[in-house]
Design brief:
This protein is mainly beta and 123 residues long. Helix content is 3%, strand content 39%. The strands form 2 sheets. It has a 6-stranded antiparallel beta barrel. It has a two-stranded antiparallel ribbon with strand order 4-5. A hairpin with a 2-residue loop joins β6 and β7 (100-104). The longest helix has 4 residues, at 53-56. The termini are far apart.
């Protein structure tokens, strides 16, 4: 099996309703330069509570939001149980101060490691 290396660039440190705080590690702060130019950004994060062999072996699920539907492949779902427990959410960038981002709409939990941030280009 091929493997790679993922470096977590920060963590979700606080979640209050739909507002979340993400703190980026000092060695990656320079990468935030000009991010404030974007209203929306994509946050890739790690489903740290599902990072075990039991959850990484899951290939079919019944989507919890659509429990009346039949089983489907994990890649046709938003399930956090998957071979690589990576989450992706497009959020509104509310504020950046030093190495801290305040975002709206993130569905990650507190302590979730952040894998990457990208500007969201729709259209």
């Amino acid at each position: 099996m091929e493997t790679g290396e993922v470096r977590f660039i920060g963590h979700v440190t606080k979640v209050e309703k739909d507002i979340s705080t993400i703190v980026i590690k000092p060695e990656y702060c320079e990468g935030l330069d000009r991010l404030e130019m974007y209203k929306k950004i994509s946050i890739l994060y790690w489903f740290h509570l599902r990072d075990n062999m039991e959850h990484r072996r899951v290939l079919t699920v019944i989507p919890r939001r659509h429990s009346e539907t039949e089983e489907r492949g994990v890649f046709a779902s938003h399930s956090p149980s998957r071979p690589n427990p990576v989450g992706l959410t497009v959020v509104e960038l509310v504020e950046i101060e030093n190495c801290t981002l305040i975002v709206k709409g993130l569905d990650a939990l507190e302590e979730s490691p952040v894998v990457d941030i990208k500007p969201y280009n729709h259209g």
